[in-house]
């Protein structure tokens, strides 16, 4: 079990939470739960409805879209964050490459945190806009 300080350190490295004060990060940490998963475990299954996001505290994961590897992520990365905004299907699968420690935050608790800490909403919107721009450039040039 990771310490409170380790959770705060992990959350502070996530771009989504970079505008947060220590007090704000503590609120996010209280809204999340720590889980562990073994190597080979699927965290997120493409196409399934998502209702939570995961922050990688320890370990590495592979992101696959239509069975094609699109990324390898490690500590400080967040996956599944679009599910915090809607109940749409997962756009990719995420599988543990190694044993992983994760912080999981569900949609309901995250919305409560967003109401208390508006800066998170701004960062999330900026992050999603950046992804849309990347996709636009890749598709249209």
List the helices and strands and how they pair.
Layout: H1 4-12, H2 22-30, E1 33-37, E2 42-44, E3 52-58, E4 61-65, E5 68-73, E6 78-79, E7 93-96, E8 100-106, H3 107-116, H4 118-140
Antiparallel strand pairs: 1-8, 2-7, 3-6, 3-8, 4-5, 4-7
Helix pairs in contact: 1-2, 3-4
Please give a structural write-up.
With 141 residues, the protein is of the alpha+beta class. The protein has one domain: Jelly Rolls (Sandwich). The chain is built from four helices and eight strands; from the N terminus they run H-H-E-E-E-E-E-E-E-E-H-H. Helix 3 packs across helix 4. The chain is globular. The N and C termini lie far apart (46 Å).
Rg = 15 Å
Q: Main β-sheet, in a few words?
A: 4 strands, antiparallel
Mean pLDDT across the residues is: 88
CATH class term:
Mainly Beta
How far is it from the N-terminal to the C-terminal residue, by CA? Answer: 46 Å
Uncertain regions spanning at least 5 consecutive residues = none
The CATH superfamily turns out to be Jelly Rolls
How many structural domains? 1
What is the number of helical segments per DSSP (H or I, 4+ residues)?
4
CATH topology descriptor: Jelly Rolls
How do the SSEs run, as a string of H and E?
HHEEEEEEEEHH
Structural class: alpha+beta
Helix content: 25-40%
Kindly state the number of beta strands. Answer: 8
* Principal-axis shape: globular
Strand content: 25-35%
Sequence of strands across the biggest β-sheet? 1-8-3-6
